[in-house]
Amino acid sequence: MDRFRVDRIAATPQPQQCVYAAMHQDYSESYVVADRESWPDERSAGEICVKRLLAGERGHYGPLEHAQIVFNVGYFPHSVMQQARTHRVGVSFDVQSMRYTGERICRAARGELDLEEVVYLRPVGDYNDRQGKRYRYSESQRESDLAFCRRSVERYSQRLSEGFSEEHARGLLPFDYRQHFVVSFTLRALLHFMDLRAKRDAQLEIRCLCDLLWPHLQDWVPEIAAWYEESRLHRARLAP
C-alpha cells in the first residue's frame, strides 16, 4: 500500500466562493457577478455555505456541484476501480487500459521491474471477512501468492510474444493488477464518494484511497471539510 498515491491535477479556484455564488444566485434579485466586490472572502464564503446549505442536514447540495476537482490516482489494484465505479457516484474516470498498456507487465516478467510495481497483494497481517471471521495472512502465504503472480505475468508475456492480442492475454493476469487513472469530481460527488467509501467497513484499499483524497479536500475547501469531518466522515450517511 506504500505505493498508492493521489495527486491533484486541477481544481476550481476559490471553490467555496463558487458555491456561495451559486447559492446566492438562487435567491438574489441581482446578477451576482455584478456584486462580486461584495462577496465574502473564501473562508467566510465556506462558513456561510456550511451555515445555509449544510448545517442541520438541510440537504441543499446542488450548489456544491459547481466546484470541481481532478486527481491522478496511481498504483491501486483493479478491485478499487471496480468498487469506485459502483453506485451512481457521478464522477468521470479515464483508466489505464490493459489493451494498450501491457508493456509494464512484460518488463516485470523479464525482471526489469519489481513485480509488486504491477500487481498488488495485501500486506502480511490479521484480517477478517465480511462475517467477522478472523484470519492471518502469513509471510509464507504471501510469498506463495507472489510466486503465483510471477507465473501469471510470465505467461502473459509469453502469449504476447506468440502473437496474442493484449485483451486476450490479460485474462491470464491476477485480478488485482495495478492501474493508474484520472478522476474528476464535483464537490458534491466527492463528498458522496467519501460517504460511500470512507466508512469503516469499506474495502481496505478503497479506504486508503479516501485517506489520500482527504488532505486534498481539506486544503481545497477547508471550512466545508471541517463540517464534513465533524458531521459525516466515516458515518456512511449517504449524500442526498
Oligomeric state of this protein: single chain
Q: Return the average pLDDT rounded to an integer.
A: 94
Through-space gap between termini: 32 Å
Major β-sheet profile: 4 strands, antiparallel
CATH names the topology of the largest domain as: Gyrase A, domain 2
Q: Overall 3D geometry?
A: elongated
Under the CATH scheme, which class of the largest domain? Alpha Beta
Report the portion of residues in β strands: 15-25%
* Percent in helix: 40-55%
Radius of gyration: 22 Å
Structural class of the helix and strand makeup?
Answer: alpha+beta
Uncertain residue segments? none
User: Which CATH architecture of the largest domain is right?
Assistant: 2-Layer Sandwich
Lateral strand order in the biggest sheet: 1-2-6-3
User: Quick one: how many beta strands?
Assistant: 6
Whole-number count of domains: 2
Give the number of helices. 9
What topology emerges from the helices and strands here?
Blueprint: E1 5-11, H1 15-27, H2 42-54, E2 68-77, H3 78-84, E3 92-95, H4 103-109, E4 125-128, E5 134-137, H5 139-161, H6 166-169, E6 178-186, H7 187-197, H8 204-220, H9 222-231
List keywords for this structure.
240 residues, alpha+beta, Gyrase A, domain 2, 2 domains, 4-stranded antiparallel sheet, 9 helices, elongated
